Amino acid sequence: MGKNGYLPLFETRPARGLVFFRSYAASIFIGICFICFHRVSYFPVTERWVWVGMFVAELWFSFYFFITVIVKWNPVFRCTFKDRLSSRFEEEELLGVDIFVCTADPRLEPPTMVVSTVLSVMAYDYPPHKLSVYLSDDGCSDLTFYALLEASGFAQLWLPFCRKLKVEPTSPEAYFQTTPEPVDDAFMANEWLIIKKTYEDMRIRIESMTRLGKVPADIRKEHKGFDEWDFVVSRHDHPSILQILIDGRDPNAIDIEGKALPTLVYLAREKRPQIHHNFKAGALNALLELAGFDGNGGPCYIGTGCVHRRESLCGMKYSKELIVESMAMKYDRKIIEKASSIEENCKALASCTYEENTPWGKEMGVKYGCVVEDILTGICIQSRGWRSVYLTPQREAFLGMVPTTLLDTLVQHKRWAEGDFQIFLSKHCPFVYGCQNMPLKLQLSYCIYLFWVPNCFATLYYVFVPSFCLLKGISLFPKISSSWGIPYLYVIVVHRVQSLVEFVWLGGTVRGWLNEQRMWMFKRTTSYFFAAIDNILKLCGFSKSAFIITGKVADDDLNRRYEQESMEFGTSSPMFTVLATLALFNLFGLVVVGTNKAINDDARIKVFDIFGFQILLCCVLVFVNLPIYQGMFFRKDSGMG
Question: Of the candidates 253, 323, 428, 455, which lies 20 to 30 Å from 19 by C-alpha distance?
Fold first, then answer.
């Protein structure tokens, strides 16, 4: 029992298997100590700078490993009891919930996918008069507005259907793809088919309109909202567009069963070429293995799949008195103004100059001036004393799309790494900005992301220099026959085995793990490297931040290869030039050493004893780069761009 005799709404459980993880971490620490002692004790007379470089790279890897251990040292999981919510609060006491769905480009984020997301959140099991859904369209597309208009009509059928059948998942696209027709009830089967047919008809209309690329004049006349696009010059030059498609305060806003519908709003924030619009952060102001973070003081905000208290986003500092006051506030839904009046009055809030000379984007709302506005906003919220928790219910609370091609993934991680390192170099660095209210463990946990960029230098050194020195006959590791080789071998093998066990335990496959190891190296040698270059250029004043949208469109062949865990390359890129150069260089080094006829059998054994670790490292790198070689020499499918 909790305070005041209430049963708790959730409980916190420590992760299982911590003894094994901590034992593993302690053994790796001992192995690292032996490696460091060897590097210092056996300092060579010649080629000392190459040796120093290896030692510095290994020190960096060790430092990053310790940060990872800190994050994973005390993970916790939250378990909620939804059935107790109704016994604690009356319906009118529940807080109002605003849900923001963001989109930016109908070509990369199909409107059918967007409205399916909107419909899924509209169908939440929550009092509809306490629920408002906002679609923030950064692309100002009349195609997206048309799709949302279609969805507002379909919601009148979809929401009662979800209540009646207790539909899971509540996204119609996902539901009809995964759920078979009910066969034990003829009436429900007939209704199921009707709803599916209605949804498919709507989807076909939206997709046809998307392919057409414009909304025909006869359809534009059916809703006054399309008149707003008469003043749109381009997606980068247009006034504020705000349309309330469903006004939840209106007693006539009901579904086919007479139940109230949630509020549904379309918003395209004003853009002008001469005024910076702050990308998604500006639109949001107009409107998650994280378990380790939770144990260290609260997970970071990663932009999606999260719930905020309005007070935390409005720049307020946390206090118990503030929470008590907010809980005591009444949620008044009485109609004071007509929806049309609200639309006109609120357009000023979505203007591109609204936040000028105000705290918005600085002390209030989602932060501006950084391409990872989510991480920066989370740091600012936690530095004001707010606490975050990580929740992973048995049924996924949020489902989203991820990049399915290698290039999209690398570009996305470049943007993230670039922004994260910007935060580290700024006044918002957790060690400075959050030192008063953020626990030291939480400040260190952020380094997992903030230090992605420096990772590239140590990784590039380890990927290139040992193979280069192998060709030059320079040994950088202990002999195979030496006992000093044991710590190197132990740290490398045990660290990777633990990674594999963890990946499989969380539901992955061995092939998926291998691809993760490849992506680990590809990101460090390209995404983080290019992010480092961009950060240097920004510090020198030669470039500015740019927001890049990753594609969400995937054809059937691409989806099939993705499900088969086959690497998809996409179009050509300078990043692939770096990957191909490193892959070919390591292959060349291995071939030269393996085919050197000047070395007889006895000498070959001696060479392997001296250079064994470098040869093994070269073999591992060649194995990791197998998809690169396949893409360059063997694959002919469309996944090669």
Answer: 455
Residue 178: burial class (beta carbons within 10 Å; 0-12, 13-18, 19+) = exposed
Q: Is 224 exposed, middle or buried (0-12, 13-18, 19+ CB in 10 A)?
A: exposed
Length of the chain: 641
For residue 236, what are its two tokens?
């980068």
State the alpha helices, DSSP H only, in 213-364: 217-220, 279-286, 291-295, 310-313, 320-328, 339-346
- Please, how many CA atoms are within 13 Å of residue 22, restricted to the half-sphere of its CB? 8
User: 109: annotated binding-site residue?
Assistant: yes
User: Is residue 230 annotated as part of the catalytic site, yes or no?
Assistant: no
Annotated catalytic residue, options 138, 142, 408, 420: 138
Active site residue 138: yes
DSSP 74: S
Angle between the 406-425 and 510-522 helix axes, to the nearest 10 degrees? 50
- 201 marked as part of a ligand binding site: no
**Residue 499, amino acid:** S
Residue range 339-398, pLDDT digits in tens = 777 776 676 666 666 677 777 777 777 787 788 888 888 888 888 888 888 877 777 666
Active-site residue (options: 374, 408, 420, 534): 374
On whether the CB atoms of residues 233 and 268 are closer than 8 A, the answer is no
